[in-house]
Amino acid sequence: MSSAQNRHILDYLRQHQQQMVSDLRRFIELESPTSHKPAVDAFGAALAEELRGLGGDLEIIPKAEVGDVLRARWNPGAGGVVILSHMDTVWDVGTVAGRPTRIDGDRIYGVGSMDMKGGIVIALWALRALRELELFPTQPITYLLNSDEETGSRHSSAEIEAEALAHDVVFVTEPPQDGKYKTQRKGVSHYTLTAMGRAAHSGADHARGINAIEELSHQVLAVQAMTDYSIGTTANVGVISGGTRPNVVPAEASCQINVRATSRVKQNAIHEQIMGLQARHPEAKLLIEGGVGVPPMERTAQIAALFKRAQTLAEEMGIALDEGSTGGGSDGNKTAALGVPTLDGMGIVGDGGHAINEYGEVSSLSERAAIMAAMLRERHEALA
Fold this sequence. Notes:
alpha+beta; 4-stranded antiparallel β-sheet; 11 helices; 18 strands; 37% helix; elongated
């Protein structure tokens, strides 16, 4: 595609950057916590209006427990690109009132500004620039906005996976890692480990008891020792509970374990380690529940090639772009695990996701939207 046309797209977006900021401020103030369906649906209604205005063939997919999912299509057909965004945030309704959106230099501070309402603005304006400049591609483009990513996309996984399989590539508008597009994400596994002993009076009959907390302590140390930073595998005991009263030998204690791994092989290997744990006390018993959850987004040759295209297009527009990896998961884990080339981290540059200092960089709105628009003009069949 013409590099001159892509630079024209960037110029257009820079000229409209203040409108992009206004949209982001408006979206931030439409609070949308995952658990509050009416709020998410209200935000979805505003986005539906935007998508219709961009000429998308819009479908609202109803969900009973979470916000409805939005799907807009341009040039319907097989192949092409699916863009994934999520409308939900981790912030309760009312947070904005106590922490109003503000701009300080090149930073816009606000709840959900980086994760991921800035990414939604970038996708919408990439599509708008292509339409306004009469550069819209002929290949199929689908924009899917789900409503429960922050809790694992349990209610929208079917739509995400179906759309991924129907397209050549997937673009995810999660925020980048230190400004870098994400070509690799760790997989996530969850476990609950329960140690079962035998209760007894701690003074009159201590010897008859089997202390479940003591047993669990041995298991916690064994799990923590499974962390191997050299290969990127981490095991974290994050929650622990047990016992009833100080004068009772505890009969039961449990902990919750979170595991991250960079590949399926490593994810399965630590899974086998955890499932193979044995009680130290000969009469104690262990119950291990859970298992492999979100698969890792592995950096395949196809994903590397997809990033290289984005990097080359960015360089032609005078924008530096690098790739990186992260321990966190996203919907991109699901699509990459299906074998569909996925480029993640295409949202707004910023920091403080899920924290009170969350912000996005204003100048990145136009630049990242220009890269996405240029990538939407590329043909990606060879990667499929």
